[in-house]
Amino acid sequence: MPTLAVLSYNTLFAGRDGQEHTRADAQVQLINELRPDVFLMQEAKYLDANGSADFYALEKQIGMRGFLAPAPRTGQNLAIFIRAPLRAARFNADTMHFHHAAATLQIEIPGAAAPVTFISTHLCPNGPAVRRREAAYLGVQASPDQLTLVAGDFNSASPHDPEPTDWHSLAQHHRARYLADDMASIDRSVLAYLEAAGWVDVGYLLDTDRTPTVPTKAYRDAEFATMRCDYMLASRSLAACAKSYQVIRNALTDGASDHYPILARFQIP
Q1: Is 13 left (phi over 0), alpha (psi -120 to 50) or beta?
Q2: What whole-number distance in Å separates Cα of residue 143 and Cα of residue 133?
Q3: What is residue 192's DSSP assignment?
Q4: Are 199 and 142 in contact (CB under 8 A)?
Q5: Which of 124, 139, 166, 175 lies in the 20 to 30 Å Cα band around 51?
Q6: Nearest-CA neighbor of 246 among 86, 36, 78, 22?
Q7: How many angstroms separate the CA atoms of 196 and 212, rounded?
Q8: Dihedral, 120, 125, 157, 153 alpha carbons, nearest 10
Q9: What one-character-per-residue DSSP string does 109-174 give?
Q10: 22-73: per-residue pLDDT in tens?
Q11: How large is the C-alpha radius of gyration of the chain?
């Protein structure tokens, strides 16, 4: 049975700080070291500029074929990259129902009995009410008999995780982005809804430490409490194929973005 390594990463403006590409170079190095079969990218900002020249350059740098979902309102594009011999069967960019966008790619895997569908998502940072509306468009895609994975930055806490220890020290205007309806605790309703719809949290399934994905070491004073913010949610059929999961925390990822990337492996029947 073929094994798929899947990486999801919010790259913080595609690793670009104006004309400075030091973080982007570190991200490319990381991807080339990990060699994922599928790479789901959030905040692929600027990669559609100049005829998508930087997007095509990134394809060459990491040796993967990319599919870009432009985010017309925010510029925080979404992308999915695949490595040969995987083959793209169908791609869709949803720019209507999401604050940023959503990228959906169905792939065919040599030796596998059925295709696998991947969704790269980045839910709205501005509040749970908006994220719950976005989640409604993801909930209906959790068919238990299909092999589907939705991954990315959900800007939300998990119902399985404790209150972040630094939650109350977060600046009020940042804390407001995550407030539950009681106006005191951190909101967990988005992930709770998605799990109720049938999605399985692969990190909760396989990582007993509930390793936080934000903030990274270089961005301790950013807008996050210490929490899981990035997730891989699998349909029940795909969750049964999950073999490993980890948050990649090392010298490269400490400074390459404000999010740590997550990596999972699936054995596809």
Answers
A1: left
A2: 19
A3: H
A4: yes
A5: 124
A6: 36
A7: 22
A8: 20
A9: -TT-SS-EEEEEEE--TT-HHHHHHHHHHHHTT--TTS-EEEEEE-----TTSPPPTTGGGS-HHH
A10: 999 999 999 999 999 999 999 999 999 999 999 999 999 999 999 999 999 9
A11: 17
81-89 CB contacts, 8 Å cutoff, 24+ apart: 81/38, 81/39, 81/41, 82/37, 82/38, 82/39, 82/107, 83/35, 83/36, 83/37, 83/38, 85/110, 86/37, 86/38, 89/115
- Kindly state the tokens that stand for 82: 């695949």
CA angle 214-261-126, nearest 5°? Answer: 45
Strand partners, 68: 79
How many CB atoms sit inside 10 A of residue 239's CB? 21
Tokens of 72: 């017309």
The pTM of this model reads 0.98
- Only one residue has tokens 């700080």, namely 17
Query: Does residue 227 carry a pLDDT above 80?
Result: yes
Q: Are strands 65-69 and 78-82 parallel, antiparallel or unpaired?
A: antiparallel
Task: Give 170-209 pLDDT, tens digit per residue.
Answer: 999 999 999 999 999 999 999 999 999 999 999 999 999 9
- pLDDT tens readout for residues 100-120: 999 999 999 999 999 999 999
* Helix, strand, or coil (residue 34): helix
* pLDDT of the residue at 253: 98
